[in-house]
Amino acid sequence: MAEVDTLVKEQGASAETQSKEEAPANTPSLEELQAELVAREKRIADLEAVSSETAQARKLVEERLSGMQQQLDAALAKYRGVLLASSPDVPESMVQGMLQLIFELEQLLCSITGMPAFTLQPAAGAQGELTGIKIIAAYHQRKHRNRPVILIPDSAHGTNPASAALSGFSVVQLKSAANGRIDLNELKSKLNKEVAAIMLTNPNTLGLFERDIQAICALMHEQDALVYMDGANMNALLGIARPGDMGVDILQLNLHKTFSTPHGGGGPGSGPVGVAKSLEQFLPVPRVKKTAKGFIWDEKASRFTVGRVHGFYGNVGMLVRAYTYIRTLGREGLERASQTAIINANYIKARLKEVFPVAFNEHCMHEFVATAKQLKQQGVTAMDVAKRLLDYGFYAPTVYFPLIVEEALMIEPTETESKETLDLFVEALLSIAKEAKTDAELVRGAPHRMSVCRLDEVKAAREPNLKWSPAHHMEQVAG
Ligand SMILES: Cc1ncc(COP(=O)(O)O)c(C=O)c1O
């Protein structure tokens, strides 16, 4: 604003000086300059009004955020004492608050997903999948029949086939339809008496809602085969649609993705599994039960239990976090979170469409998968783009997944980012695309501003160097 003021004063001063002298040809008259001055003053006043509106809006948002933070702190304070005092070996009578939290979180998840019963024991999405698959195996075993096959779409997350194979099932892949979704004809052609279940993700990993989900469930149930839904993308559905209502039999959630931990943030996870009523008796034990004398661990809660899947009761800290998040936001807040995640993803998708188009061009849910194949001409890959994003200060998105999209960049902004951040992210990607044309080497050699530059990823995974040493650090910085 100060710069604008100086400009206006200079213009005024020079206009005065000129009026005293003979005006050279093509020089604006004093009247024109005065009119210009008035127009500029009006623009400045307009700008000031906008800036004060922005400040007011910012203040409002800050107040709301601080209100939410206070609620969160209060809820945490209530449970902090319980947490600090807790050890998995403490008698039930001393951890009634924690048992109540587990009991209530199970109920909250039932109501959010429409699944009648939950275990909170699995400590990650993948472990939830494994638990679900064990339940599928136990279900068919109890019916004394051999069902060795699990159907999985080709867009699935890698942990899906891994969980099925680890449990001794053969995986039969379903080729996606031209619209990126499960192809009903393909499903019908692969569905037979050997099939134990289908393992699908909804919305799928392309960020597309499986619109035929009810028809898929009906087809599977006709064969007494089960429907497993990978619910890691549940942050697109909160308050909008419930897997239980769609006919899903088993569902895992990624609490660390959907309920308060940004994806990719690292740290411990939690992968609760929800089941249909007919499968409740297969859930892991113990389960928390409410009795007249208080809450207890019930080791006999499930008659045909698949057993324990984790020491004690999973990552309890994550349960406290998810519980606090859900109670703080409430039903409307959760719905708003999903709506915001969906709008954010569609906004970025629309802004990037010329340079990073999507393979399946439709409205997406909370994420979309763009392709970086336009940059291939310059020898720049999706991996290079992801690495260069680090230089721009952004956590890199998942790349090369799902496998059915060439040079895939999976973009999942979640509900937490402001429009300002989304714009910066888009501008960073567009700027990287320009760099690819003008200085491809810069992008191919990225990151340049990290303490550790481009790694040999396979070597780094096989021979991790987790010790910090000044000499090594200097070497890396020097490139
Ligand atoms: C669709 C999907 N399924 C499963 C998983 C596995 O979850 P986790 O990393 O907690 O094991 C993820 C993780 O990102 C995922 O996106």
How would you describe what is shown here?
With 479 residues, the protein is of the alpha/beta class. It folds into 3 domains: 57-86; 87-330, Type I PLP-dependent aspartate aminotransferase-like (Major domain) (Aspartate Aminotransferase, domain 2); 331-478, Aspartate Aminotransferase, domain 1, CATH 3.90.1150. The chain contains 15 helices and 12 strands. The chain has helices spanning 2-20, 30-85, 96-113, 125-142, 159-166, 184-190, 213-222, 243-246, 255-258, 316-352, 382-391, 419-438, 440-444, 457-462, 470-478, and strands at residues 117-119, 149-153, 170-174, 195-201, 226-231, 250-253, 273-275, 287-291, 294-298, 368-371, 398-399, 408-411. The strands form 3 sheets. The protein has a 7-stranded mixed sheet, with helices on both faces. Strands 10-12-11 form a 3-stranded antiparallel sheet, with helices on one face. A two-stranded antiparallel ribbon has the order 8-9. Strand 11 and strand 12 (408-411) form a beta hairpin. It is globular and about 95 Å long. The two termini are 42 Å apart. The model is unreliable at 1-23 (pLDDT under 50). The structure holds pyridoxal-5'-phosphate. The site of pyridoxal-5'-phosphate has 13 residues, from helix 4.
